[in-house]
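Reading a protein record of the kind used here takes little practice once its layout is understood. An example of such a record is reproduced below.
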Amino acid sequence: MDHVTLFRWAQRFTPQLIDAARRCRHAVGNRWFVHETYVNVNGIWRYVYRAVDQYGQVIDILVSKHRDIASARRFFNVSLRAHRSPTEVITDRAATLANVTPELIPAAFGNTGQYENNRCEADHGRLKARLRPMRGLKTDRTVSIVTGGHAFIQHLRRRGRYELGVDVSPVFRLATAFNELQLAICLSPPSRTIQHTHDRATRQCPLGCVDKARAPSLQLLH
């Protein structure tokens, strides 16, 4: 199978998989380690804001053209809408993060101590190690999907992030989680109707068919 086909599958199905697994995700911790890294997108540097809790779970990701207060504020606003407010926010001493934290989360303790944010910086290394062998990213949307998908797969491999594949051996956890998510996506509420002749049901099926034999294997996405 051509690598372009796999890449297009990843572009199409990764957001659907993440959305389908949202209800199975465990609550994030109350200590947020926030930092930004950079990614080369079609020859132009983009900043990737990332937050990790004390358990190593990636809380949220935002790709931005600029490293400024407006981007940091947008990142925190998106994260706070999806998760409860933390009691402690660990950042470096950059003004973009240090100034926004007291403004948006006044009750949280802002920690800018030396070496305190090593957890998030080390997690950047896992992402960079995955991006380095790739042929390059061309759009901001691709960066958002790939970085989000990397964090998602990282969570599925580790027990305790999602209630998916928890009753099987770690060797089969990822494959079991994908099989469970495949059914959730196929049975999702309709955004457009597709008539299935084999069961006479009209419902949304992003994979093209509820029948596993006629749907592409989602295990290839990892």
